[in-house]
Write a structure and sequence with these properties.
The chain is α+β, with helices and mostly antiparallel strands and 683 residues long. The chain contains 20 helices and 22 strands. It binds adenosine-5'-diphosphate and magnesium ion.
Length: 683
Amino acid sequence: MQKGNIGVTTDNIFPVIKKFLYSDHEIFLREIVSNAVDATQKLKTMSERGEFVGELGDLTVRINLDKEAGTLTISDRGVGMTSEEIDRYINQIAFSGATDFLEKFKDSANAIIGHFGLGFYSSFMVSKRVDIITLSCKEGSKAVKWSCDGTPEFTIEETEKTDRGTDIVLHIDDDCKEFLEKNRIQELLRKYCHFLPVSIAFGKKTEWKDGKEQETEEDNIINNSTPIWKQKPTELKDEDYQKFYRDLYPGYEEPLFWIHLNVDYPFNLTGVLFFPKIKNDLDLRRNKIQLYCNQVFVTDSVENIVPDFLTLLHGVIDSPDIPLNVSRSYLQSDANVKKISKYITKKVSDRLDSIFKEDRKVYEEKWDDLKLFINYGMLSEPDFYDKASKFSLFKDCENKYYTYEEYKELIKDNQTDKDGNLVYLYASDVEKQYNYIEDAKAKGYNVLIMDGQLDTPLVGMLEQKFEKSRFCRVDGDTINRLIQKADDVENVIDADESDNLASCFNSCIPVVDKSEFHVEVQSMGKEAAPVVITRSEYMRRMKEMSRLQAGMSFYGEMPDMYSFILNYDHPVVAKINDSLKSATVDQLKPVEAELKGLKARQSVLRDEQSKAKDGEFTEEMKKELDKCNDDIKTQEDKKKEIISNYAKSEAKVRHLIDLAMLQNGLLGGKELTEFIKRSVELL
Ligand code: ADP
Ligand code: MG
């Protein structure tokens, strides 16, 4: 027997590596199994080239668990190693590789995807001793056994082994007993080795016999060595993709579409990406793309490799050209990764474009489930916007779909306002905004439905991208003012009269938590509703954005701003106006006369004040102006009181208010109960 010292500089680096790679101990299995696969592939290549002439035989890689002996053994029938090769590849290279690795990633070990580059060495993360028992495929080789207990010392001796290939025997450490559990190993094999290109057997298949689980003769093959992404798209059917998807994501709904990726220049990449149904949950579906390197699973977090919106997709990317032994933050700036990311983005938009062009009907059917993904892409990647703006759709309240171009054509004649702006009307809730939608339809306008999670930012972006265009939610204002036409002649209403009417209604508006109302009078025609409640587009958008973005919570705290618009032309309102006038005329007359005088004086004084040079506006004049202001306030309060007294006596005022609030879901609790009581009384 020979003894030796492994060429590492640090005396004992094992405890170090064990400690700071703790969370990823499990990768040892991937490393050891992929070495076995590599050795097998090498042998196949040698055989093809005639460098190896013996029988290949069964090349299955076998994994065996011996709980009693406390060992996990990975056996292959690959090239094997001679004692010289062990010395070169294990003693020198593998170990120095580990030392380099440590040096390089001392501070950021967890930032490295899958810790590639650790290789054989990683077996010591879970083992108190590792044996290599191997027989090289080279003719006349002798079997050797190498053994190392986790110090830099090792032994190497001749041994008995008749079959070509390598057994790696891991004597599992006492604090890593989990790796002696069948289920745990099964789980790891599924995660890392599911698609390795050589058959992997984990023990034998079992069956239930005589009430006991018993081993059969059949190998328990745990992998699919020719996954679909390695096959030719022309040889695959839809069912193959669907089945693969189900295997990968059990319990998920069927995907909408998929893309088969396949390039070998200027980088090598294969894969299949699936478009899942996303509906309205952006965050739940992340981290479903699996990254492989030559069919070895590396990670399922691909951020920094593909643009953020693509992480919503599912599927597999396999590329040996993604550098895996660099830190995550470095990845994004890697030239290959940039190219790969661009390529995938382009493929995704090309695929959507072709489905859209070839089968518009299917595309429309799937649009609702696809929309969030496309919107997210358009918002976050300008390149994607340029492409997607050709196949992104609008949906109207009649469930008809239009491209941006088509929609513009549809509305451009009727929905251009007097300043030449194209007005896109939209609703976020067809039920709740029913009356507003009807008002718009009555004018021959089209109303879009915008009820998606990202519609508010999308609308903001489209307003920037489209020329001379505005998006207005139907309840943002009265329809005449949403799209103002040149020939709309506004009925001029007497200012005092309209003030009094507004004040009459204002005095009856109930207090609603976090809401503010502002009453105004407009002439909207006899056919329109007597009262319309609208909600400021600007404030509403700001509040919605504050929910999506940090740092905007200020807006979230602001009250909701509603306008309460009285239709002067409506007979009920006109009637109230008339009776308001006649009921209050006598009381208001002296107050208004008084106010008129006061205001005239106020304006004279103000005028003088503004023109006065130093000292000309005397202390006395200032006092008079102050008093004048106070008196005006007193008279106005008096006026308000007179009007409010009338309002209280006229149940219709409050009733109209309640009806409008009810229609907008603003009436609740005590107010609602009182409204119902009042309604019953009226019957
Ligand atoms: P890498 O696989 O990246 O080369 P490893 O540390 O995993 O690095 O392995 C070091 C070397 O040891 C391999 O390159 C190979 O030459 C040799 N080796 C490891 N496992 C086996 C095996 N099962 N059969 C033959 N050679 C092996
Ligand atoms: Mg390796």
